[in-house]
Amino acid sequence: MSKQFDVIVIGGGPGGYIAAIRAAQLGFNVACIDEWKNAKGGPALGGTCTNVGCIPSKALLQSSEHFEQAGHHFADHGINVSGLSLDVAKMVARKDTVVKQNNDGIVYLFKKNKVTFFHGRGSFVAAKDGLYEIKVAGTAEETISGKHVIIATGSNARALPGTPFDEANILSNDGALRIAAVPKKLGLIGSGVIGLEMGSVWRRLGAEVTVLEGLPTFLGAVDQQIAKEAHKAFFKQGLKIELGVTVGEIKSGKNGVSVAYTNAKGEAVSLDVDKLIISIGRVANTIGLAADVVGLALDERGAIVVDGDCQTNLPNVWAVGDVVRGPMLAHKAEEEGVAVAERIAGQHGHVNFNTIPWVIYTNPEIAWVGQTEEQLKAEGRAYKAGTFPFMANGRARALGDTTGMVKMLADAVTDEILGVHIVGPMASELIAECVVAMEFRASSEDIARICHAHPSLSEATKEAALAVDKRTLNF
């Protein structure tokens, strides 16, 4: 007789482990299956986000930012640094420590909430008598069964056709986080979140970085006024970004990687680099799930088909996060995981796709929520816009970081906030106020009338709200 659970979660990333914890809090007997391994072969809960994504990239970004500040900006504060040197191995070791702390934290949370953990790959075996049998293929193979199954198996890096990742010269996000020494020349294909963040890390540490982007516009999903401001900042930093390119043959050898491409002018160009990071998106991970065994429906991209409540075509089988439609963001996965656990309990789980924030952790940071000005124009909606530059913000001046602005978009008639877009210091933290405001359908006037601490970066948000009505006070 197999072990039986009320809820089985396949995948221990942000969507999976959060779903398991919330289901346990609601009184269910919960199991979570996850196959990630640490260097010693033990469990490494947290999925891509914790192991080779959000967490380690932010650790390296922080370390590289310290190095950049010490080498180029401390002198502005009267702090003189001599003999500055870089220990990449120690930097990477610190990153690994941060990852392990997060891994261990999830193990603790499972114990605290009485979630049973199985280390291995979970796959469907059968569905009968109202239960789903799931095989766990790990060190030892066993089968468990459950009434409800939540699939949270995440996504994998998308490779260029004919150019597989070798994680030595041609790198995914995984290999990009394990580069052992600063490459003299680093190439990136794709100027999305991962590409820009990893490019920023190694550029700060001394690499000559070239980004090749196929689209004709920089950061096409971002409000273009904000994207142009970010592009100027990156260019000033020395990050070379080529737009509108068509990538051709890629050759990898003992001396590095050669990329043949056609630039926006139609000219044939060759780029020779020591390392090449490919960051062209991600694909849903349903490998090894045995979806066909139980008739689980997948779409043409291999993602699991779900309705608005994350319910699949099978009764009591749910799916959340990167493996379903919607933005591939850790916090989106978490919200879906909570919502599904609550729906299983008969509650009304809630996820508002219109107020999911986006963040790119470069310097300057880029963050946004809601619609862009381009989207509002395309749908013919009447709107008002207000902007406020950080160069006019007292706290930003004190920080010595005045790049960027806050931009607020509001309905021309009702004044409801439709979108907020930020490029500048701590944009990742400033966007939270705007998400809250939009969840409560606040107006720009509401933000403009709220007292913000002085001096603080958040005053730029208040001033942008004032600018919607053309009454900024400090610019």
What does this protein structure show overall?
The protein is α/β, with parallel strands linked by helices and 475 residues long. Helices cover 32% and strands 26% of the residues. It has 14 helices and 22 strands. Strands 1, 2, 3, 4, 5, 6 and 17 form a 7-stranded mixed beta sheet that branches. Strands 8-15-9-10-11 form a 5-stranded parallel beta sheet. It has a 5-stranded antiparallel beta sheet with strand order 18-19-22-21-20, with helices on both faces. A hairpin with a 2-residue loop joins β12 and β13 (256-262). α3 (54-72) packs antiparallel against α4 (88-113) and α3 packs parallel to α6. The protein is globular. 46% of the residues are buried. The model has no long low-confidence stretch (mean pLDDT 97).
Any key phrases for this structure?
475 residues, alpha/beta, FAD/NAD(P)-binding domain, Enolase-like, domain 1, 3 domains, 7-stranded mixed β-sheet, 5-stranded parallel β-sheet, 22 strands, 32% helix, globular
In a few lines, what is going on in this structure?
By secondary structure, the protein is an alpha/beta fold. It is built from 14 helices and 22 strands.
Beta-strand content estimate: 25-35%
- Within CATH, the superfamily of the largest domain carries the name FAD/NAD(P)-binding domain
Query: Ends: how far apart?
Result: 72 Å
Reading off the top of the CATH hierarchy, the class of the largest domain is best stated as Alpha Beta
Biggest sheet: strands, sense, closure? Answer: 7 strands, mixed
Structure classification:
alpha/beta
